[in-house]
Prior knowledge:
Blueprint: H1 2-14, E1 33-37, E2 43-49, E3 60-65, E4 71-81, E5 86-93, E6 96-106, H2 110-125, H3 137-144, H4 148-158, H5 161-164, H6 166-177, H7 181-190
Antiparallel strand pairs: 1-2, 2-3, 3-4, 4-5, 5-6
Amino acid sequence: xxxxxxxxxxxxxxxxxxxxxxxxxxxxxxxxxxxxxxxxxxxxxxxxxxxxxxxxxxxxxxxxxxxxxxxxxxxxxxxxxxxxxxxxxxxxxxxxxxxxxxxxxxxxxxxxxxxxxxxxxxxxxxxxxxxxxxxxxxxxxxxxxxxxxxxxxxxxxxxxxxxxxxxxxxxxxxxxxxxxxxxxxxxxxxxxx
Length: 193
């Protein structure tokens, strides 16, 4: 399914059905991550990480597909270094800029960011508890083991999904952190209240 949806995404970009705000070559389509959310209307998300040092490794393209693999929506999460050496955050939903902020959070180079993300992946791999109702931010920060800047950026990008439901939150966090679906869902549910 991942290969099918990746090919479908590349075709949609080629046909201009998906309009990107950074070059297609900046994305690493070979490392796309797939997650499925079951429910009344099951959906599948495909998250394509950035592979260009001009952008923070937290940047990505996330697409949501319906139960018949029809594209429902897509979002680009773009993080770059501002002129003030802080993070500049842009979010585009279906090619419409929905959010832009030059934060006061000091920019972290990708090498250091990758170290923190490895720590987060390790923490997620070791969690199993299930809870419900909303993401407990202090718990998330403790479980993630990431620095305040990394955690704040992740929570800004995934704030709305992490208020709604564990599956949506897990898809958002999974797309940013780029880990396997099962371990990230376990981590999110550990900090869900």
